[in-house]
Write a structure and sequence with these properties.
mainly alpha, 1 helix
């Protein structure tokens, strides 16, 4: 079951998932920082 092709595929999906999560978090942080300039409080 844990042959080289499966392990390579699993690592690729793991890297892809981490990249997607990092992109979402980065977008959220930039969005929050951009909106903080418009707040009145």
């Amino acid at each position: 079951m844990l042959d080289g092709a499966f392990l390579s595929h699993a690592i690729g999906w793991l890297i892809g998932a981490m990249t997607l999560c990092a992109a979402v978090v980065t977008f959220g942080a930039l969005f929050a920082m951009g909106r903080s300039g418009y707040r009145k409080d």
